Every structure is written in C-alpha cells, then in structure tokens.
Amino acid sequence: MTYFIYKDTCPECGADVIRHNASRFGFCRGACDILLHIPSYRETKEMVSVVSCQIGGGKWQKITKKEFTDLDRAIKKFCQQGVV
User: Fold this and answer.
1) 19-30: per-residue pLDDT in tens?
2) Domain-by-domain residue ranges, the chain?
3) 54 strand-pairing partners
4) What are phi and psi for residue 76, nearest 5 degrees?
5) What gap in Å lies between CA 13 and CA 62, rounded to an integer?
6) How many helices and strands in the chain, by DSSP H and E?
7) Helix, strand, or coil here: 72?
C-alpha cells in the first residue's frame, strides 16, 4: 500500500502526520498541538520539524495552536483599528 510513503511522525509526541504533494505548515493532531513544518512527500530527505520562535534575546519557544490563534486575533484587531 503506497499510503505509508506519505506518512511521517510528529517529533514531539509521535502522532501520525500525513505528507502532501506540497510543503506546508500545520498543527499536530496529537497531544502536543504544536505548529509543524511538513515537507512534501517528494522531499524524502527532509523530516517533519517543529516551528519555533524567539522573542528578543529570550529562549526559543515552540508555537502552540492556542498561541497562534491568540496572535492572529490580536493582529486582526490591530488592523481593524486602521493603524496599519
């Protein structure tokens, strides 16, 4: 079955991650719920990796779905006020 070629695992919790024909960013559907960079199934040497951010000179942090949606909501609210 060719389905297993398109399957990978989350580096944090080990949940199944499906690769598609194009690279993308997506959230893990397992227990960790973090943002992942998911390479396409054509990029066989690249592994699924965690997306991290660093604020100022602080430590690197993984981006969770809740943090991402909170940030998205704040940016939309900021842009609606006509500041940009």
Assistant:
1) 988 999 999 998
2) 2-80
3) 60
4) -65, -40
5) 13
6) 1, 7
7) helix
